Amino acid sequence: MPRDRIVRAIRRHGICCRVAILLLSSPAFLAAGLPVLAQNTPVETPVIDRRFAPHIAEASKRFRIPEHWIRAVLTAESADPVLRNA
Question: Taking the model in full, what pTM does it have?
Answer without folding.
Answer: 0.40
